[in-house]
Design goal:
single chain, about 525 residues, alpha+beta, Glutaredoxin, Rossmann fold, 2 domains, 4-stranded mixed beta sheet, 15 helices, about 35% helix
Length: about 525
Protein backbone atom coordinates (compact mmCIF):
# COMPACT_ATOMS: atom_id res chain seq x y z
CA UNK A 1 0.00 0.00 0.00
CA UNK A 2 1.46 3.28 -1.08
CA UNK A 3 0.95 6.45 0.72
CA UNK A 4 0.33 9.62 -1.31
CA UNK A 5 2.24 12.56 -0.14
CA UNK A 6 0.42 15.80 0.08
CA UNK A 7 2.12 19.17 -0.14
CA UNK A 8 2.17 20.96 3.10
CA UNK A 9 0.69 24.41 2.92
CA UNK A 10 3.12 27.13 3.68
CA UNK A 11 2.18 29.34 6.51
CA UNK A 12 1.14 32.80 5.50
CA UNK A 13 3.48 35.40 6.81
CA UNK A 14 1.95 38.27 8.62
CA UNK A 15 1.44 41.32 6.34
CA UNK A 16 1.61 39.28 3.12
CA UNK A 17 -2.12 38.74 2.73
CA UNK A 18 -3.99 41.69 1.23
CA UNK A 19 -6.90 42.92 3.20
CA UNK A 20 -10.23 43.04 1.39
CA UNK A 21 -10.71 46.69 2.40
CA UNK A 22 -7.41 47.69 0.83
CA UNK A 23 -8.16 45.86 -2.40
CA UNK A 24 -11.51 47.60 -2.68
CA UNK A 25 -9.85 50.94 -1.99
CA UNK A 26 -7.27 50.38 -4.73
CA UNK A 27 -10.02 49.48 -7.16
CA UNK A 28 -11.90 52.63 -6.31
CA UNK A 29 -8.79 54.77 -6.77
CA UNK A 30 -8.12 53.16 -10.12
CA UNK A 31 -11.69 53.72 -11.27
CA UNK A 32 -11.56 57.35 -10.08
CA UNK A 33 -8.32 57.93 -12.00
CA UNK A 34 -9.91 56.51 -15.14
CA UNK A 35 -13.06 58.61 -14.67
CA UNK A 36 -10.94 61.72 -14.06
CA UNK A 37 -8.92 61.14 -17.19
CA UNK A 38 -12.08 60.56 -19.18
CA UNK A 39 -13.74 63.71 -17.76
CA UNK A 40 -10.63 65.76 -18.48
CA UNK A 41 -10.53 64.42 -22.01
CA UNK A 42 -14.21 65.16 -22.56
CA UNK A 43 -13.79 68.72 -21.18
CA UNK A 44 -10.80 69.26 -23.45
CA UNK A 45 -12.78 68.02 -26.46
CA UNK A 46 -15.76 70.22 -25.51
CA UNK A 47 -13.52 73.29 -25.11
CA UNK A 48 -11.88 72.54 -28.45
CA UNK A 49 -15.28 72.26 -30.12
CA UNK A 50 -16.42 75.55 -28.60
CA UNK A 51 -13.21 77.32 -29.67
CA UNK A 52 -13.42 75.96 -33.21
CA UNK A 53 -17.12 76.84 -33.39
CA UNK A 54 -16.48 80.40 -32.19
CA UNK A 55 -13.65 80.86 -34.65
CA UNK A 56 -15.83 79.54 -37.46
CA UNK A 57 -18.76 81.78 -36.50
CA UNK A 58 -16.51 84.85 -36.23
CA UNK A 59 -15.31 84.19 -39.75
CA UNK A 60 -18.90 84.60 -41.00
CA UNK A 61 -20.03 88.10 -42.05
CA UNK A 62 -21.83 90.11 -39.41
CA UNK A 63 -24.96 90.07 -41.57
CA UNK A 64 -25.25 86.36 -40.77
CA UNK A 65 -24.02 86.14 -37.18
CA UNK A 66 -25.73 89.21 -35.67
CA UNK A 67 -29.42 89.88 -35.17
CA UNK A 68 -31.32 93.10 -34.65
CA UNK A 69 -32.72 93.16 -31.12
CA UNK A 70 -32.93 96.96 -30.86
CA UNK A 71 -36.24 98.68 -30.09
CA UNK A 72 -35.95 101.00 -33.10
CA UNK A 73 -34.91 98.19 -35.50
CA UNK A 74 -32.13 100.31 -36.98
CA UNK A 75 -30.72 97.28 -38.80
CA UNK A 76 -34.04 96.50 -40.48
CA UNK A 77 -33.63 97.50 -44.13
CA UNK A 78 -36.75 98.80 -45.85
CA UNK A 79 -38.61 97.08 -48.65
CA UNK A 80 -37.89 100.15 -50.81
CA UNK A 81 -34.15 99.59 -50.49
CA UNK A 82 -34.36 95.84 -50.98
CA UNK A 83 -36.41 96.29 -54.13
CA UNK A 84 -34.11 99.03 -55.41
CA UNK A 85 -30.90 97.07 -54.82
CA UNK A 86 -32.48 93.98 -56.38
CA UNK A 87 -32.88 95.90 -59.65
CA UNK A 88 -29.51 97.69 -59.51
CA UNK A 89 -27.64 97.19 -62.80
CA UNK A 90 -24.48 99.21 -62.13
CA UNK A 91 -21.58 98.59 -59.76
CA UNK A 92 -21.33 100.93 -56.78
CA UNK A 93 -18.52 101.24 -54.24
CA UNK A 94 -18.98 102.53 -50.68
CA UNK A 95 -15.68 103.85 -49.30
CA UNK A 96 -15.66 104.56 -45.57
CA UNK A 97 -13.07 107.29 -45.01
CA UNK A 98 -12.52 107.02 -41.26
CA UNK A 99 -10.19 105.49 -38.72
CA UNK A 100 -11.37 102.20 -37.21
CA UNK A 101 -11.74 103.85 -33.80
CA UNK A 102 -14.10 106.46 -35.28
CA UNK A 103 -16.46 103.98 -36.95
CA UNK A 104 -19.44 103.27 -34.74
CA UNK A 105 -20.22 99.56 -34.44
CA UNK A 106 -23.83 100.20 -35.48
CA UNK A 107 -22.74 101.77 -38.74
CA UNK A 108 -20.20 99.05 -39.41
CA UNK A 109 -22.76 96.31 -38.87
CA UNK A 110 -25.38 98.12 -40.96
CA UNK A 111 -22.93 98.45 -43.88
CA UNK A 112 -22.32 94.69 -43.75
CA UNK A 113 -26.06 94.05 -43.85
CA UNK A 114 -26.59 96.60 -46.61
CA UNK A 115 -23.86 95.39 -48.97
CA UNK A 116 -24.97 91.78 -48.46
CA UNK A 117 -28.21 92.60 -50.29
CA UNK A 118 -26.56 93.08 -53.68
CA UNK A 119 -23.48 91.81 -55.46
CA UNK A 120 -23.38 95.19 -57.20
CA UNK A 121 -22.55 97.04 -53.97
CA UNK A 122 -19.16 96.66 -52.32
CA UNK A 123 -17.50 98.46 -49.46
CA UNK A 124 -13.97 99.27 -48.41
CA UNK A 125 -12.38 101.26 -45.60
CA UNK A 126 -9.53 103.77 -45.77
CA UNK A 127 -7.87 105.35 -42.75
CA UNK A 128 -7.28 109.06 -43.47
CA UNK A 129 -4.75 109.23 -40.64
CA UNK A 130 -2.54 106.58 -42.24
CA UNK A 131 -3.31 107.76 -45.79
CA UNK A 132 -4.12 111.51 -45.67
CA UNK A 133 -4.04 111.79 -49.46
CA UNK A 134 -7.45 110.06 -49.67
CA UNK A 135 -9.14 113.26 -48.49
CA UNK A 136 -7.88 115.01 -51.61
CA UNK A 137 -8.54 112.00 -53.82
CA UNK A 138 -12.20 111.75 -52.82
CA UNK A 139 -12.65 115.50 -52.14
CA UNK A 140 -14.14 114.81 -48.72
CA UNK A 141 -13.49 115.21 -45.04
CA UNK A 142 -12.64 112.49 -42.55
CA UNK A 143 -15.53 110.46 -41.17
CA UNK A 144 -17.39 110.31 -44.47
CA UNK A 145 -18.73 107.65 -46.80
CA UNK A 146 -17.96 108.17 -50.48
CA UNK A 147 -20.45 106.54 -52.86
CA UNK A 148 -19.05 106.03 -56.36
CA UNK A 149 -20.34 104.60 -59.63
CA UNK A 150 -17.65 103.92 -62.26
CA UNK A 151 -20.17 103.61 -65.11
CA UNK A 152 -21.46 107.17 -64.64
CA UNK A 153 -18.23 108.58 -63.17
CA UNK A 154 -20.29 110.15 -60.40
CA UNK A 155 -19.62 110.33 -56.67
CA UNK A 156 -21.58 111.44 -53.62
CA UNK A 157 -20.20 112.18 -50.15
CA UNK A 158 -22.25 111.33 -47.06
CA UNK A 159 -20.93 112.72 -43.76
CA UNK A 160 -21.27 110.01 -41.13
CA UNK A 161 -22.97 112.63 -38.96
CA UNK A 162 -25.87 112.55 -41.47
CA UNK A 163 -26.31 108.84 -40.76
CA UNK A 164 -25.65 108.78 -37.03
CA UNK A 165 -27.19 112.14 -36.16
CA UNK A 166 -25.85 113.61 -32.88
CA UNK A 167 -28.07 115.35 -30.38
CA UNK A 168 -27.16 119.05 -30.53
CA UNK A 169 -28.50 119.59 -26.99
CA UNK A 170 -26.01 117.21 -25.41
CA UNK A 171 -23.19 118.54 -27.54
CA UNK A 172 -23.89 122.15 -26.59
CA UNK A 173 -24.65 121.78 -22.87
CA UNK A 174 -22.62 118.73 -21.86
CA UNK A 175 -19.98 118.51 -24.60
CA UNK A 176 -21.02 114.89 -24.97
CA UNK A 177 -21.81 113.01 -28.18
CA UNK A 178 -25.18 111.28 -27.96
CA UNK A 179 -26.86 110.04 -31.12
CA UNK A 180 -30.62 110.40 -31.46
CA UNK A 181 -31.21 109.30 -35.09
CA UNK A 182 -29.96 106.64 -37.47
CA UNK A 183 -30.49 107.24 -41.19
CA UNK A 184 -28.30 104.66 -42.88
CA UNK A 185 -31.04 103.16 -45.04
CA UNK A 186 -32.30 106.41 -46.53
CA UNK A 187 -28.95 108.14 -46.94
CA UNK A 188 -27.21 105.22 -48.65
CA UNK A 189 -30.06 104.36 -51.01
CA UNK A 190 -30.51 108.01 -51.95
CA UNK A 191 -26.78 108.42 -52.60
CA UNK A 192 -26.63 105.28 -54.73
CA UNK A 193 -29.62 106.42 -56.76
CA UNK A 194 -27.96 109.81 -57.20
CA UNK A 195 -24.68 108.46 -58.63
CA UNK A 196 -26.40 105.79 -60.73
CA UNK A 197 -29.09 107.99 -62.27
CA UNK A 198 -27.10 111.25 -62.25
CA UNK A 199 -30.37 113.16 -61.80
CA UNK A 200 -31.11 116.41 -59.98
CA UNK A 201 -34.19 118.64 -59.85
CA UNK A 202 -34.94 122.15 -58.68
CA UNK A 203 -37.95 123.18 -56.62
CA UNK A 204 -38.96 126.58 -55.31
CA UNK A 205 -40.95 127.30 -52.14
CA UNK A 206 -43.09 130.43 -52.39
CA UNK A 207 -42.72 132.96 -49.54
CA UNK A 208 -44.32 136.21 -48.30
CA UNK A 209 -47.77 134.73 -47.59
CA UNK A 210 -47.02 133.70 -43.99
CA UNK A 211 -46.28 130.18 -45.21
CA UNK A 212 -45.03 127.42 -42.94
CA UNK A 213 -41.53 126.08 -43.44
CA UNK A 214 -41.15 122.58 -44.78
CA UNK A 215 -40.79 120.06 -41.97
CA UNK A 216 -37.65 118.15 -41.20
CA UNK A 217 -38.98 114.85 -42.54
CA UNK A 218 -40.19 116.29 -45.86
CA UNK A 219 -37.02 118.34 -46.35
CA UNK A 220 -34.90 115.23 -45.83
CA UNK A 221 -36.98 113.23 -48.30
CA UNK A 222 -36.78 115.96 -50.94
CA UNK A 223 -33.00 115.90 -50.58
CA UNK A 224 -32.96 112.11 -50.79
CA UNK A 225 -34.95 112.33 -54.00
CA UNK A 226 -32.38 114.77 -55.44
CA UNK A 227 -34.43 117.96 -55.15
CA UNK A 228 -32.80 121.27 -54.31
CA UNK A 229 -35.37 123.58 -52.70
CA UNK A 230 -34.91 127.34 -53.00
CA UNK A 231 -37.08 130.13 -51.65
CA UNK A 232 -38.99 132.36 -54.08
CA UNK A 233 -40.77 135.69 -53.73
CA UNK A 234 -42.90 135.91 -56.86
CA UNK A 235 -43.31 139.68 -56.76
CA UNK A 236 -39.71 140.51 -55.87
CA UNK A 237 -38.15 137.95 -58.23
CA UNK A 238 -40.42 138.79 -61.14
CA UNK A 239 -42.17 135.46 -61.54
CA UNK A 240 -41.31 131.76 -61.63
CA UNK A 241 -37.72 131.04 -62.73
CA UNK A 242 -37.16 129.02 -65.88
CA UNK A 243 -35.35 126.26 -63.95
CA UNK A 244 -38.29 125.71 -61.57
CA UNK A 245 -39.53 122.15 -61.92
CA UNK A 246 -41.85 122.17 -58.89
CA UNK A 247 -43.46 125.22 -57.28
CA UNK A 248 -44.40 124.61 -53.63
CA UNK A 249 -46.96 126.67 -51.73
CA UNK A 250 -46.83 125.29 -48.20
CA UNK A 251 -49.72 126.38 -45.99
CA UNK A 252 -50.08 130.02 -47.03
CA UNK A 253 -52.28 131.97 -44.61
CA UNK A 254 -52.51 135.00 -46.90
CA UNK A 255 -54.01 135.03 -50.36
CA UNK A 256 -52.08 135.41 -53.61
CA UNK A 257 -51.94 138.82 -55.19
CA UNK A 258 -53.54 139.09 -58.62
CA UNK A 259 -50.12 139.46 -60.24
CA UNK A 260 -48.93 136.31 -58.46
CA UNK A 261 -52.00 134.44 -59.66
CA UNK A 262 -51.17 135.50 -63.21
CA UNK A 263 -47.55 134.33 -62.81
CA UNK A 264 -48.62 130.90 -61.56
CA UNK A 265 -51.13 130.56 -64.40
CA UNK A 266 -48.40 131.38 -66.90
CA UNK A 267 -46.11 128.82 -65.27
CA UNK A 268 -48.80 126.13 -65.47
CA UNK A 269 -49.53 126.96 -69.11
CA UNK A 270 -45.93 125.96 -69.93
CA UNK A 271 -46.24 122.59 -68.22
CA UNK A 272 -45.36 123.60 -64.67
CA UNK A 273 -45.92 121.54 -61.55
CA UNK A 274 -47.58 123.26 -58.56
CA UNK A 275 -47.94 121.66 -55.12
CA UNK A 276 -50.41 123.50 -52.87
CA UNK A 277 -50.80 122.46 -49.23
CA UNK A 278 -53.55 124.34 -47.41
CA UNK A 279 -53.33 125.29 -43.73
CA UNK A 280 -55.64 123.71 -41.17
CA UNK A 281 -57.38 127.02 -40.49
CA UNK A 282 -59.74 128.30 -43.15
CA UNK A 283 -59.15 131.84 -44.46
CA UNK A 284 -60.36 134.07 -47.24
CA UNK A 285 -58.37 133.40 -50.40
CA UNK A 286 -60.39 134.39 -53.45
CA UNK A 287 -57.41 134.28 -55.82
CA UNK A 288 -56.38 130.82 -54.67
CA UNK A 289 -60.02 129.77 -54.97
CA UNK A 290 -60.08 131.10 -58.53
CA UNK A 291 -57.00 129.04 -59.43
CA UNK A 292 -58.41 125.88 -57.83
CA UNK A 293 -61.84 126.30 -59.38
CA UNK A 294 -60.26 126.78 -62.80
CA UNK A 295 -58.73 123.34 -62.38
CA UNK A 296 -61.93 121.67 -61.15
CA UNK A 297 -61.54 121.89 -57.35
CA UNK A 298 -63.55 123.91 -54.83
CA UNK A 299 -63.50 124.24 -51.04
CA UNK A 300 -66.66 122.86 -49.35
CA UNK A 301 -66.55 125.29 -46.42
CA UNK A 302 -65.71 123.04 -43.46
CA UNK A 303 -63.50 120.28 -42.10
CA UNK A 304 -63.56 116.78 -43.57
CA UNK A 305 -64.60 113.96 -41.25
CA UNK A 306 -65.40 110.27 -41.54
CA UNK A 307 -67.69 108.25 -39.27
CA UNK A 308 -66.41 104.95 -40.68
CA UNK A 309 -62.63 105.36 -41.03
CA UNK A 310 -61.84 107.59 -38.05
CA UNK A 311 -58.91 106.93 -35.73
CA UNK A 312 -60.57 105.36 -32.70
CA UNK A 313 -57.87 106.36 -30.20
CA UNK A 314 -58.46 110.01 -31.05
CA UNK A 315 -62.24 109.59 -30.61
CA UNK A 316 -62.70 112.31 -33.19
CA UNK A 317 -64.28 111.96 -36.65
CA UNK A 318 -61.95 114.71 -37.92
CA UNK A 319 -58.93 112.45 -37.40
CA UNK A 320 -59.35 109.69 -39.95
CA UNK A 321 -57.73 107.46 -42.54
CA UNK A 322 -58.77 108.66 -46.03
CA UNK A 323 -59.42 106.16 -48.79
CA UNK A 324 -56.54 105.72 -51.25
CA UNK A 325 -57.28 105.70 -54.97
CA UNK A 326 -54.84 103.01 -56.11
CA UNK A 327 -55.32 104.01 -59.76
CA UNK A 328 -53.68 107.36 -59.04
CA UNK A 329 -50.01 108.15 -59.61
CA UNK A 330 -49.92 109.58 -56.09
CA UNK A 331 -50.62 106.10 -54.69
CA UNK A 332 -47.90 104.36 -56.73
CA UNK A 333 -46.37 101.48 -54.79
CA UNK A 334 -49.19 101.43 -52.22
CA UNK A 335 -52.29 99.30 -51.82
CA UNK A 336 -55.78 99.92 -50.51
CA UNK A 337 -54.66 98.30 -47.23
CA UNK A 338 -52.08 101.04 -46.57
CA UNK A 339 -53.08 103.85 -44.24
CA UNK A 340 -52.63 107.60 -44.46
CA UNK A 341 -53.66 109.59 -41.39
CA UNK A 342 -54.99 113.17 -41.54
CA UNK A 343 -56.30 115.55 -38.90
CA UNK A 344 -58.35 118.72 -39.35
CA UNK A 345 -58.30 118.49 -43.13
CA UNK A 346 -60.36 121.07 -44.96
CA UNK A 347 -63.08 119.47 -47.10
CA UNK A 348 -62.95 119.90 -50.84
CA UNK A 349 -65.15 118.76 -53.69
CA UNK A 350 -64.73 118.27 -57.40
CA UNK A 351 -66.48 120.66 -59.81
CA UNK A 352 -66.46 121.26 -63.56
CA UNK A 353 -63.11 122.62 -64.69
CA UNK A 354 -62.77 125.71 -66.85
CA UNK A 355 -61.55 123.62 -69.80
CA UNK A 356 -62.44 120.16 -71.06
CA UNK A 357 -58.72 119.37 -71.35
CA UNK A 358 -58.34 119.37 -67.55
CA UNK A 359 -58.63 116.04 -65.73
CA UNK A 360 -59.04 115.78 -61.96
CA UNK A 361 -57.66 112.76 -60.11
CA UNK A 362 -58.82 112.59 -56.47
CA UNK A 363 -56.35 110.30 -54.69
CA UNK A 364 -57.37 110.94 -51.04
CA UNK A 365 -61.08 111.02 -50.14
CA UNK A 366 -63.39 110.28 -47.28
CA UNK A 367 -65.53 107.17 -47.48
CA UNK A 368 -69.22 107.39 -48.34
CA UNK A 369 -69.73 107.86 -44.60
CA UNK A 370 -67.81 111.12 -44.74
CA UNK A 371 -68.98 114.61 -43.86
CA UNK A 372 -67.98 118.24 -43.95
CA UNK A 373 -68.20 119.86 -40.51
CA UNK A 374 -68.64 123.59 -39.99
CA UNK A 375 -69.62 123.31 -36.31
CA UNK A 376 -70.97 120.68 -33.93
CA UNK A 377 -74.51 121.34 -35.16
CA UNK A 378 -73.67 122.26 -38.74
CA UNK A 379 -72.43 119.39 -40.87
CA UNK A 380 -73.28 117.81 -44.21
CA UNK A 381 -72.85 114.12 -44.99
CA UNK A 382 -71.21 113.01 -48.21
CA UNK A 383 -67.92 111.99 -49.79
CA UNK A 384 -65.31 114.74 -49.85
CA UNK A 385 -61.83 115.17 -51.31
CA UNK A 386 -58.70 115.65 -49.21
CA UNK A 387 -56.07 115.38 -51.92
CA UNK A 388 -56.33 115.70 -55.71
CA UNK A 389 -54.25 116.44 -58.79
CA UNK A 390 -55.66 118.37 -61.73
CA UNK A 391 -53.66 117.82 -64.92
CA UNK A 392 -53.81 119.27 -68.41
CA UNK A 393 -51.90 118.50 -71.59
CA UNK A 394 -50.52 121.86 -72.74
CA UNK A 395 -48.25 120.83 -75.59
CA UNK A 396 -45.72 118.38 -76.93
CA UNK A 397 -42.23 117.91 -75.61
CA UNK A 398 -39.53 118.91 -78.05
CA UNK A 399 -36.20 117.11 -77.98
CA UNK A 400 -33.45 119.31 -76.55
CA UNK A 401 -35.83 122.26 -76.43
CA UNK A 402 -34.19 125.55 -75.49
CA UNK A 403 -35.58 128.62 -73.88
CA UNK A 404 -35.01 132.13 -75.18
CA UNK A 405 -31.77 132.45 -73.19
CA UNK A 406 -30.39 129.26 -74.68
CA UNK A 407 -30.92 127.17 -71.55
CA UNK A 408 -33.11 124.12 -71.17
CA UNK A 409 -36.67 124.94 -70.15
CA UNK A 410 -37.41 122.80 -67.09
CA UNK A 411 -41.17 123.08 -67.43
CA UNK A 412 -41.18 122.26 -71.15
CA UNK A 413 -38.94 119.24 -70.58
CA UNK A 414 -41.33 117.66 -68.10
CA UNK A 415 -43.47 114.90 -69.57
CA UNK A 416 -46.22 112.73 -68.13
CA UNK A 417 -45.53 109.25 -66.85
CA UNK A 418 -47.17 106.24 -68.35
CA UNK A 419 -46.85 104.50 -71.69
CA UNK A 420 -49.44 106.65 -73.49
CA UNK A 421 -47.84 109.90 -72.41
CA UNK A 422 -44.34 108.65 -73.24
CA UNK A 423 -45.38 107.69 -76.77
CA UNK A 424 -46.98 111.09 -77.42
CA UNK A 425 -44.40 113.12 -75.44
CA UNK A 426 -47.15 115.18 -73.86
CA UNK A 427 -46.17 118.19 -71.79
CA UNK A 428 -48.51 118.08 -68.80
CA UNK A 429 -49.29 120.82 -66.29
CA UNK A 430 -50.21 119.66 -62.79
CA UNK A 431 -51.86 121.38 -59.87
CA UNK A 432 -51.85 119.19 -56.74
CA UNK A 433 -53.95 120.35 -53.79
CA UNK A 434 -53.71 118.82 -50.33
CA UNK A 435 -56.19 120.13 -47.78
CA UNK A 436 -54.47 118.36 -44.86
CA UNK A 437 -51.18 119.85 -43.70
CA UNK A 438 -51.10 116.98 -41.19
CA UNK A 439 -50.12 114.72 -44.09
CA UNK A 440 -46.56 116.04 -43.82
CA UNK A 441 -46.57 116.99 -40.13
CA UNK A 442 -43.36 115.89 -38.39
CA UNK A 443 -45.15 114.98 -35.15
CA UNK A 444 -47.68 112.69 -36.82
CA UNK A 445 -45.20 111.12 -39.22
CA UNK A 446 -42.65 110.66 -36.44
CA UNK A 447 -45.15 109.17 -33.99
CA UNK A 448 -46.61 106.59 -36.37
CA UNK A 449 -43.54 105.94 -38.53
CA UNK A 450 -43.92 103.18 -41.10
CA UNK A 451 -47.46 102.42 -39.92
CA UNK A 452 -48.74 105.24 -42.12
CA UNK A 453 -47.85 106.18 -45.70
CA UNK A 454 -48.26 109.97 -45.47
CA UNK A 455 -44.79 110.87 -46.67
CA UNK A 456 -44.88 108.34 -49.49
CA UNK A 457 -48.11 109.85 -50.80
CA UNK A 458 -46.69 113.36 -50.66
CA UNK A 459 -43.42 112.42 -52.37
CA UNK A 460 -45.36 110.59 -55.07
CA UNK A 461 -47.23 113.81 -55.84
CA UNK A 462 -43.87 115.57 -56.26
CA UNK A 463 -42.13 112.93 -58.37
CA UNK A 464 -45.11 111.85 -60.50
CA UNK A 465 -44.15 114.26 -63.26
CA UNK A 466 -40.61 112.97 -63.68
CA UNK A 467 -39.75 109.81 -65.59
CA UNK A 468 -36.18 109.82 -64.27
CA UNK A 469 -37.08 110.00 -60.58
CA UNK A 470 -38.59 107.32 -58.39
CA UNK A 471 -39.86 107.99 -54.90
CA UNK A 472 -37.37 107.11 -52.15
CA UNK A 473 -39.43 107.50 -49.00
CA UNK A 474 -37.24 106.12 -46.22
CA UNK A 475 -37.42 108.13 -42.99
CA UNK A 476 -34.70 108.01 -40.34
CA UNK A 477 -35.07 105.91 -37.21
CA UNK A 478 -34.97 107.19 -33.66
CA UNK A 479 -32.24 106.02 -31.29
CA UNK A 480 -33.96 107.42 -28.23
CA UNK A 481 -35.02 104.94 -25.58
CA UNK A 482 -38.58 103.77 -26.03
CA UNK A 483 -40.92 104.45 -23.12
CA UNK A 484 -44.04 102.61 -22.12
CA UNK A 485 -47.15 104.67 -21.59
CA UNK A 486 -49.38 103.13 -18.93
CA UNK A 487 -53.08 103.68 -19.38
CA UNK A 488 -55.34 103.65 -16.28
CA UNK A 489 -52.30 104.22 -14.07
CA UNK A 490 -54.41 104.42 -10.89
CA UNK A 491 -55.79 100.91 -11.36
CA UNK A 492 -52.35 99.41 -12.07
CA UNK A 493 -50.82 101.27 -9.14
CA UNK A 494 -53.47 99.80 -6.80
CA UNK A 495 -52.77 96.33 -8.18
CA UNK A 496 -48.98 96.45 -7.81
CA UNK A 497 -48.71 98.53 -4.65
CA UNK A 498 -51.62 97.11 -2.59
CA UNK A 499 -53.30 93.99 -3.97
CA UNK A 500 -50.25 91.88 -4.87
CA UNK A 501 -48.29 92.65 -1.65
CA UNK A 502 -51.43 91.87 0.42
CA UNK A 503 -51.90 88.54 -1.37
CA UNK A 504 -48.23 87.68 -0.73
CA UNK A 505 -48.62 88.47 3.00
CA UNK A 506 -51.76 86.31 3.31
CA UNK A 507 -50.16 83.35 1.53
CA UNK A 508 -47.04 83.68 3.69
CA UNK A 509 -49.10 83.79 6.89
CA UNK A 510 -51.07 80.66 5.89
CA UNK A 511 -47.85 78.73 5.15
CA UNK A 512 -46.29 79.83 8.45
CA UNK A 513 -49.40 78.90 10.45
CA UNK A 514 -49.57 75.40 8.98
CA UNK A 515 -45.90 74.72 9.66
CA UNK A 516 -46.30 75.97 13.23
CA UNK A 517 -48.88 73.25 13.93
CA UNK A 518 -46.58 70.44 12.74
Amino acid sequence: MSLKRTKKAEPVQPGKQAKPEKVALEKRKTAKRKNGLMSTGMIAVAVAIVVVFNVAVNMLPSSVRQFDSSNSKIYEISDTTQEYLGKLDKDVTLTVVAADADIDYRLSHFLDLYTALSDRVTQKKVDPVAYPSVLTKYDCEANSIVVQCADTDQSYVIPISDILVPDSYYQYYYNETVYNEFDGDGQLTSAIDSVVSNVSHTAYRVTNHSEAGLGKEVSALLTKNHFTVNELSLLMDGGVPDDCEVLILNQPTKDLAKDELKMIRTYLSKGGQVSLILPSESFKHPNLNTLMKEYGLKMAGGYAGDTQRYYTSAQNYLTFFPELNTDSEAITGLTSEDLALVNQALSMKQVDAARDTITVDAFLTTSESGMTVVSEDDYTKGQYVVGATASEVVGQKETDSKDKDGGSSAAAATSAKGSDAEESNDVVARLTVLTANSLIDDNICGQFGDAICNLTVYMNTITAAFDDTSTISIPSKSLQDATNTVTSAGVWSMLYLVVLPLVALIVGFVVWYRRRKL
